[in-house]
TrEMBL record:
Protein name per UniProt: Protein N-acetyltransferase, RimJ/RimL family
PANTHER family cross-referenced by the UniProt entry: AMINOALKYLPHOSPHONATE N-ACETYLTRANSFERASE-RELATED-RELATED
Lineage: Bacteria, Bacillati, Actinomycetota, Actinomycetes, Pseudonocardiales
UniProt organism field: Amycolatopsis saalfeldensis
Positions of the N-acetyltransferase domain: 9-167
One Pfam entry name: Acetyltransf_1
């Protein structure tokens, strides 16, 4: 998938080759807590955390026996920049899809997330979804702004923010 903007933004479905590039981008340009579930142990991109990152994506996207979502490598002007995902919430033919995006630090705040969100919305509609949902936290101003910019309703409860958009 290609998004229109000043940058060339290309979303490529994850496979082993793009997963390796995604890990490189994460290690170079993001904190583990921004891009993967918490893992006990010393901070930073330890060998264990890198392996857990790979296992996380293999389980959720690549292994046909366990996959629950589609993940794309986001490339910006040919460089691996982050990941986007769409997860049907109640099974493969769900009307509701949950979206997620992360970008490396050097790519944030330049309108790229907005373009990626548009591409994800289009993919959700093309896939037959009727509702687009996403979650973030109240302290994540960029994600909240990104989500409200799609026209989604934002529901704040405690530290959590749930976004919901009828497609
Ligand atoms: C959240 C994230 C995907 C947003 O992508 P981005 O490319 O940085 O966002 P954009 O530049 O497209 O900006 C989207 C909107 O947020 C605003 N924004 C961007 N960075 C902001 C910041 N630090 N504080 C406040 N608003 C911000 C922009 O002005 C824009 O609003 P507008 O359309 O009203 O002008 C990106 O910042 C990121 O990957 N963060 C770390 C991981 C993460 O938090 N992922 C989301 C978890 S739910």
């Amino acid at each position: 998938m290609t998004g229109l903007s000043d940058f060339e933004i290309v979303l490529t479905p994850l496979d082993e080759a793009t997963l390796a590039r995604l890990l490189e981008a994460a290690v170079a340009d993001a904190e583990p807590h921004e891009v993967m579930p918490p893992l006990d142990g010393p901070p930073g991109w330890t060998p264990e955390r890198r392996e857990a990152f790979l296992a996380f994506h293999r389980r959720r996207s690549l292994d046909p026996d366990t996959a629950i979502e589609t993940t794309w490598l986001i490339e910006v002007d040919g460089r691996a920049a982050g990941a986007a995902r769409l997860q049907p919430v109640h099974g493969a033919s769900a009307v509701e899809v949950e979206a997620g995006v992360w970008l490396g630090r050097s790519c944030r705040g330049r309108g790229i997330g907005k373009r990626v969100a548009e591409v994800l919305l289009e993919a959700a509609r093309d896939g037959g979804a009727a509702r687009f949902i996403a979650s973030t936290t109240v302290d994540n101003a960029a994600a909240r702004r990104l989500l409200s910019g799609t026209g989604a309703d934002l529901d704040v409860h405690g530290e959590e923010v749930d976004a919901r958009l009828e497609l």
